[in-house]
Amino acid sequence: MNHMTKTGLERLTADHWEDYAFPIETVPIKANVDDDPSGDIPIPDRVALIRSDTNEYLATHSLQYRPVLHNDVVNPVMNILDRISMDYHVDVRLHDNGALMVAKFTCRDILIEDPSLNDYIAYQITLRNSYNGMWSVMINAYGLRMFCMNECTTPDKIANFKLKHNGIFNYNFEHLEHSLDVFRNSEAKYKAWHKQSVADTVATMLFEKICYSARPTIDGKHYNATQVYNLERLWSQYKSEMGRTVWSLYNTVTHWASHPTEVSRPEKTKVERNNAFTKYLQHNNNIFIDTQELINV
């Protein structure tokens, strides 16, 4: 984490596109019995979802499953972006034969200042969709800290949209313009956090809350001790470079959420950790709300 003086916008080079608009279809499922080749056994209450352009398997679903197409999520967002930004970077990636899609749009021309560096935080919209049931439709709009690529989680409900797949996709895409106002208003908040110190004990309490586990460990703890330890290590690094501040604490958690290591499904882990932090931020008694009055100083 050696801090640079030149802008991290240089990290956003060529756009990355993967074909998210591929066709899909459902096909019947049959079971094959090895020792009885005389006939297959129909599975009447399940269907397989496949890519009809490549015949690759995506998932198995009930007859009631109604997908939301990747392009039905991406295309309206791009229409909004064309209206609000003259220079945005595109990163669209598929996983599991296209069953999972992650699309990120980062606006190079919609920026706020990073309070601790000679750098910027850019407005970013992240879309997630799945055909295998791993994710609902998710639309998140918040900042991307350019130096370290930490995604700046926000508790704002309009900036964090989620909808289960039921064949009906009703989303007011104009909400993204509201999320843009939330992003711009974050600059004063981040500067206030950069001025406010925080105790190590408060940081540890935060880590234990976002790593909460309903099932206790052998010693009776209701949190993932390994992840709390990982957060403590990150906290030490951020403190040494940015000071023992609320802004450093915030970046400790967003770093942990944005850059999972030693996990089998990084994108799945990102969503889980971001959701845990968002849930904490939506509580009325969190450390970040307690610094709100500093904005008006």
Which properties best describe this structure?
297 residues, six-stranded antiparallel β-sheet, 6 helices, 9 strands, 32% helix, disordered N terminus, disordered C terminus
Helical segment count: 6
Q: How far apart are the first and last residues' alpha carbons, in Å? A: 30 Å
Mean pLDDT across residues: 87
Number of domains: 3
Structural class given helices, strands, pairing? Answer: alpha+beta
Proportion of residues in β-strands: 15-25%
Helical fraction equals 25-40%
Largest beta-sheet characterization: 6 strands, antiparallel
Number of strands: 9
Question: Assembly state here?
Answer: single chain
Tell me the series of helices and strands, N- to C-terminal: EEEHEEEEEEHHHHH
Radius of gyration: 22 Å
- Overall geometry comes to globular
Q: Residue ranges: pLDDT <50 for 5 or more in a row?
A: 1-6, 293-297
Task: Describe the protein.
The protein has three domains: 8-17 and 67-185, no CATH class; 24-62, no CATH class; 191-296, no CATH class. The two termini are 30 Å apart. It is built from six helices and nine strands. The strands form two sheets. Strands 4, 5, 6, 7, 8 and 9 form a six-stranded antiparallel β-sheet that branches. A three-stranded antiparallel β-sheet has the order 1-2-3, with no helix packed on it. Helix 5 (246-258) runs antiparallel to helix 6. The relative contact order is 0.12. The chain has helices at 70-84, 175-195, 200-210, 225-242, 246-258, 266-281, and strands at 24-31, 41-51, 57-62, 88-95, 100-113, 120-130, 137-145, 150-152, 160-163. By secondary structure, it is an alpha+beta fold.
